[in-house]
Write a structure and sequence with these properties.
This protein has two domains: about 10-125, D-amino Acid Aminotransferase, Chain A, domain 1, CATH 3.30.470; about 130-290, Alpha-Beta Barrel (D-amino Acid Aminotransferase, Chain A, domain 2). It is an alpha+beta fold. Strand 1 (about 10-15) and strand 2 form a beta hairpin. The strands form two sheets. Strands 8, 9, 10, 11, 12, 13, 14, 15 and 16 form a nine-stranded mixed β-sheet that branches. Strands 1, 2, 3, 4, 5, 6 and 7 form a seven-stranded antiparallel β-sheet that branches. The protein is globular and about 55 Å long. The chain contains seven helices and 16 strands. The structure holds 4'-deoxy-4'-aminopyridoxal-5'-phosphate. 4'-deoxy-4'-aminopyridoxal-5'-phosphate (PMP) binds near residues 43, 197, 215 and 219.
Length: about 300
């Protein structure tokens, strides 16, 4: 299947305060963000035109930039209005929303104190994967060689483009071996997360998930913990070593893109997608569905 490249699509993109034709939303090759990783982004989903937890995503977007030492030139409210405007302008209600910010061209060495901060917001169609039968088969995960870095080594709470370098390498290696994705350990050898999603396990009717102290504390992760507690399902956030995976029944990953997706295998460990995963898939689907369409 050939996919139309992302720079050759129709529609509009919000860029530095204006809605511009999709193909005109360009940056120069001499941009600090490209050369030195001075870039942060968000990944959000709109359901029926309404972005799930839009404010939380825009707050994280600003925090991600601050952790890299720059301030976005737009407030949370301005970013939320811009996201809504670009969704409406493109006229599609079920979309992925991709805000991105980067340091521009005014300075092209390590120091970028005076580089302009650019912000763009694009949306594209990405139907949500709530087909239960497919989901309940579960996905297969490799175990990545790269580990999530010590928070003293990298700004791990930032959704910084640079932190995804090891994710793409790990995902490619996993895909070459026939896996859907890879689970990553952290710098101490503990279970951490996947390349673009957080991870949960079940045992004796309770959820277990790693403490988000050196990787993104996903907005979906926080939502799943909340949904589970509302159902009276216990949630333990704790240190999980890989050997312990043998003691869990179910496993699932969660994130804006993945939503809640069961896992059937992680390296040598096998899991059986079951009732807790199914319940949380359904509860998450209900939670993200707006009471009324946005437009
Ligand atoms: N970890 C990583 C590395 C991610 O890329 C994502 C997706 N943004 C997540 C976790 C999940 O975050 P969220 O639930 O906020 O989408």
């Amino acid at each position: 299947m050939s996919i139309l490249p992302f720079d050759q699509r129709d529609g509009v993109i919000w860029m530095n305060g204006q809605i511009v034709p999709w193909r005109d939303a360009k940056m120069h090759v001499l941009s600090h963000g490209l050369h030195y990783g001075g870039s942060v982004f968000e990944g959000e989903r709109a359901y029926n035109g309404v972005i799930f937890k839009s404010r939380e995503h825009s707050e994280r977007f600003r925090t991600s930039a601050e952790l890299l030492g720059f301030e976005l030139p737009y407030s949370v409210d301005e970013l939320m209005a811009a996201k809504d405007a670009v969704i409406r302008a493109n006229g599609v209600r079920d979309v992925y929303v991709r805000p991105v910010a980067w340091r521009g061209s005014e300075m092209m060495a390590i120091s970028a104190q005076n580089a302009k901060i650019h912000v763009a917001i694009a949306t594209w169609e990405w139907p949500s994967m709530f087909d239960m039968a497919t989901k309940m088969k579960g996905i297969r995960l490799d175990i990545a060689e790269y580990r999530r870095p010590d928070p003293q080594t990298a700004p791990s709470a930032s959704k910084a483009a640079g932190l995804y370098m090891i994710c793409t390498i790990s995902k490619h290696k996993a895909e070459r071996k026939g896996y859907a994705d890879a689970m990553m350990l952290d710098w101490q050898g503990r279970v951490a997360e996947c390349t673009g999603a957080n991870i949960f396990f079940t045992r004796d009717g309770e959820l277990h998930t790693p403490i988000a102290d050196c990787f993104l504390n996903g907005i979906t992760r926080q939502t799943v913990i909340d949904l589970a507690r509302r159902r009276g399902i216990g949630v333990a956030e704790r240190r999980i070593m890989p050997e312990e995976l043998a003691t869990f029944n179910e496993a699932f990953v969660c994130g804006t893109g993945a939503e809640v997706t069961p896992v059937s295998e992680i390296g040598p460990y096998k899991f059986t997608p079951g009732n807790i995963s199914r319940t949380l898939i359904e509860d998450y689907a209900a939670e993200v569905t707006p009471k009324a369409p946005a437009f």
